Amino acid sequence: ETNNAFDALSGEGLSEEPMQKDKEAAGSGGGGAWEVPAGERKQQQRRRKGQRRVVDIDHDDENEDDENGGSVGNERQREHPFIVTEPGEVARGKKNGLDYLFHLYEQCREFLIRVQNIAKDRGEKCPTKVTNQVFRYTMKVGASYINKPKMRHYVHCYALHCLDEEASNALRKTFKDRGENVGAWRQACYMPLVTIAARQGWDIDAIFNAHPRLAIWYVPTKLRQLCHAERNSAAASSSVIPGGGDHFPF
Amino acid sequence: ETNNAFDALSGEGLSEEPMQKDKEAAGSGGGGAWEVPAGERKQQQRRRKGQRRVVDIDHDDENEDDENGGSVGNERQREHPFIVTEPGEVARGKKNGLDYLFHLYEQCREFLIRVQNIAKDRGEKCPTKVTNQVFRYTMKVGASYINKPKMRHYVHCYALHCLDEEASNALRKTFKDRGENVGAWRQACYMPLVTIAARQGWDIDAIFNAHPRLAIWYVPTKLRQLCHAERNSAAASSSVIPGGGDHFPF
DNA sequence: AGAAGGACCAGTGGTCCGTA
DNA sequence: AGAAGGACCAGTGGTCCGTA
């Protein structure tokens, strides 16, 4: 129910197979493949090996008969790991790029909107954030490449992308050129956010809430803590200045 | 920390004895006694019987030496039950009136504000609603006459009081005069709220959120369900009208 | 080694039901 | 009987750590 324009755009099979376990639905978008998440792919024929079926978009491998070890199929397939890409860059090999990462946040927002519409229709309480309920919905609906630990892990990266796309793009370029891994880039996303918070009275919650696409995400604990710590040390150093108080002495 | 004007007004001992169990702090305001919640009362002498110590504000019984059964003291004392009173009326006997009930909601809001200030100071996430955390705080602080089941039970009664004090007052008078009990009055509070919701597009969440003192309370499940059911049956009956559709046919 | 995500855990919202 | 509230429970936010 409650289809909207997003559904057509995202091209995902969101209302199908609510009973079916999500094993066969994950779509690991390799490179530019992420415009076509895999929910739509599986049909009534069950997967005998499961694995390749699910991971090989980036190989253009539509062949069902790949071999891969003797294990009975259906074991869960992980998404390809992210690599640092610059804006517009397509990840090569069994990797996903950062445009795809950010796209997952947009998709997640669309799922939230659906969950909200369903809740409103039913007169139930309506989530304002991406909650467990939303992640359960993405699973049910076959979009199991969206999961809670992953989305929570990179929220602050998406926040930087939303709040200062220029800075976010520049950081991606720098870290790509340096050959840094995703973990290093992810860590580096904190600092610019703390700087933004400093400019806005350190209220990171207010900053998230003021941005329509960011407001639906919980502020990550570590980001909150960094802002708090930095605020305190900023206050401490400014109060040491002779002439004192919390104001700049000029 | 973070004392504010409310503290002085409420007269409660909120920052004391965080270690002490709450057993000796509950203050059952009988009648007009509720301006002086009992948190402040206990001192370093421990209660030997506990019970009377805690319940007898309405008796003006400051005497420590009441007898009451041989049981070792400290058993929890319940608040006096509510009775339907009209506005300004003081409950007699071992009863509490509805002004006192509504006062508990105001107090609870003050406790929330303190919890929020503490959270902000610490850079922790800041509750926007009266959560378990707030109830834990009221307990810790000796205001154990505020508890979750009670506050949730009467939220919609408080909502009516906030949203249409005239109607609320009239309902109280009516039910008092009829000699109805609190349960009957409580049930009767639902209907006027549904009527208010009908006028405002059935969005009971929006109605709560638009009111500053009500916004901090979760919409009670039953009220939400009533609004939903009533909306649907209103829609159904209007769509039956010849000339059809969801609009009035004139 | 670096990274994805199943699965766990402490504390939540919600309210039932043993208690007085 | 009517009512107050301790205590339970399903599902939450949060993220660790066994996995690949």
Describe this structure in words.
Chains A, B: Residues 1-88 are annotated as: Disordered. Chains A, B: Probable transcription factor. Chain A has 250 residues and is mostly helical. In chain A, 47% of the residues lie in helices and 0% in strands. Chain A contains 11 helices and no strands. In chain A, helix 3 packs across helix 4 (132-140) and helix 9 packs across helix 11 (221-240). The longest helix of chain A has 25 residues, at 98-122. Mean pLDDT of chain A is 75; it is low at 1-73 and 243-250. The structure holds a DNA duplex (20 and 20 nucleotides).
Give short descriptive properties of this protein.
homodimer, about 250 residues, mainly alpha, 11 helices, about 45% helix, flat, disordered N terminus, disordered C terminus, DNA-binding, Floricaula/leafy-like transcription factor (chains A, B)
SSE inventory with pairings:
The structure is a homodimer of 250-residue chains.
Chain A: H1 5-10, H2 51-55, H3 98-122, H4 132-140, H5 148-153, H6 155-163, H7 165-177, H8 182-188, H9 190-199, H10 204-210, H11 221-240
The first copy, chain A, binds a DNA duplex (20 and 20 nucleotides) through helix 5.
Protein name (chains A, B): Floricaula/leafy-like transcription factor
Domain Floricaula/leafy DNA-binding C-terminal (chains A, B): 69-235
Family (chains A, B): Belongs to the FLO/LFY family.
Task: Give a brief rundown of this model.
Chains A, B: Its main location: nucleus. By secondary structure, chain A is mostly helical.
- Main beta sheet of chain A: none
Put simply, the count of helices of chain A is 11
Q: Beta fraction of the residues of chain A?
A: under 5%
- Using only CA atoms, what is the Rg of chain A? 21 Å
* Strand element count of chain A: 0
The two chains with the largest interface, and their residue counts, are: A-B, 13 and 13 residues
- Tell me, briefly, the overall form of chain A: flat
Chain-averaged pLDDT of chain A: 75
Structural class of chain A: mainly alpha
- How far is the N terminus from the C terminus of chain A? 61 Å
Oligomer: homodimer
